[in-house]
Design brief:
The chain is an alpha/beta fold and about 325 residues long. The protein folds into 2 domains: about 140 residues, Alpha-Beta Complex (Quinone Oxidoreductase, Chain A, domain 1), CATH 3.90.180.10; about 140 residues, NAD(P)-binding Rossmann-like Domain (Rossmann fold, 3-Layer(aba) Sandwich), CATH 3.40.50.720. Helix content is about 30%, strand content about 30%. It contains 9 helices and 15 strands. The strands form 3 sheets. Strands 3, 4, 5, 6, 7, 14 and 15 form a 7-stranded mixed β-sheet that branches. A 6-stranded parallel β-sheet has the order 10-9-8-11-12-13, with helices on both faces. A two-stranded antiparallel ribbon has the order 1-2. The protein starts with a strand and ends with a strand.
Length: about 325
């Protein structure tokens, strides 16, 4: 049997990409075969398709860090033919062949059965971005964030940031969205933001170890000087969930916010988090009532259209979520 895939290869001129037909015998070893219906476009996908960051070590390669579809073959008792499943993380699309394909073979440990009310399309409107944002919100709630509290979301126009606005808004938080694209203000407020601020107001390296106590929590998709600045403005015992590095992977700060205000810096790992936590996160998203908003801000493209979007997402020109139809 054959299947369609976006295949990357490496030559003297860099990484090349093409839509092609492959044979099932070329699939990697795995416990479960999934007929992929949808994938999505993430910043990391843009890096992989552009050959940036040495994320892929072996070519040829199929990118796509997310996938959702239906099990067609399984040697693992946890999954049966016909089960609807979703996969995010586990370095799929980097080390392992990913979701930009009509068929994938993966390890059963990486899969989660989709909740009944979430379609495979809507699962990819959520994708890694929405999954990570909900992880971050759960972590903040476990460290004291309560309904009505002020929640800052940085990188608000991106997929992760806009997802965080949705989850925060339906969760009853007073969400402030920080963005470099103020022309998106109306859209961000429609997603659930109470206020939208220019990222420039918090993007500079802090000049003092502590500033006015402002935020009860923060979901930070930026890192760098923005994260350092946020740490100085958190309220006593407040937390920031760090889940992105759009502004850089460095962090130049002091221990003063941790010692004098007892703030918490929470790391969010959506790639290797265990299966039981993944199921918890998907259940929380199903119960949130916010999925329709994420679907409403998503755009669906065909598999052969995603190649041209790689430089666009790297340049910050892609709004919201992009679902990739693989069938």
């Amino acid at each position: 049997m054959t299947f369609k895939a976006l295949l990357l290869d490496q030559g003297d001129g860099g990484v090349t990409s093409q839509i092609t037909q492959l044979d099932d015998s070329q699939l990697p070893d795995g416990d479960v075969t999934v007929e992929v219906e949808y994938s999505s476009l993430n910043y990391k996908d843009g890096m992989v398709m552009s050959g940036i960051g040495r994320l892929v070590r072996e070519y040829p390669h199929i990118p796509g860090v997310d996938l959702a579809g239906t099990v067609s073959e399984s040697s693992d008792d946890r999954f049966a033919v016909g089960d609807r499943v979703v996969l995010t993380g586990w370095r799929v699309g980097e080390v392992w062949w990913g979701g930009y394909s009509t068929r994938a073979k993966v390890k059963a440990d990486w899969l989660v059965k989709l909740p009944d009310s979430i379609s495979t399309h809507d699962a990819m409107a959520i994708g890694t971005a929405g999954f990570t944002a909900m992880q971050a919100l759960i972590a903040l709630e476990r460290h004291g964030l309560a309904a009505g509290d002020s929640l800052l979301v940085t990188g608000a126009s991106g997929g992760l940031g806009s997802s965080a606005i949705v989850w925060g808004g339906v969760g009853g938080y007073a969400v402030t969205a920080s963005t470099g694209r103020l022309e998106n203000t109306d859209e961000l407020k429609a997603l659930g933001a109470s206020e939208v601020i220019d990222r420039a107001t918090i993007a500079e390296a802090p000049t003092r170890p502590l500033s006015s106590e402002t935020w009860a929590g923060c979901i930070d998709a930026v890192g760098g000087d923005t994260l350092a600045n946020v740490l100085t403005t958190l309220r006593s015992r407040a937390s920031v969930a760090a889940c992105g590095l759009a502004g850089g992977n460095g962090l130049n700060t002091t221990v003063i916010p941790f010692l004098l205000r007892g703030v918490n810096l929470l790391g969010i790992d959506s790639v290797m988090c265990p299966a039981d936590h993944r199921s918890e996160v998907w259940a929380a998203m199903e119960a949130s009532g916010g999925i329709s908003k994420l679907v409403g801000m998503s755009t669906t493209v065909a598999l052969d259209e995603v190649i041209a979007l790689a430089p666009e997402i790297l340049a910050g020109n892609v709004k919201g979520r992009t679902v990739v139809e693989c069938v």
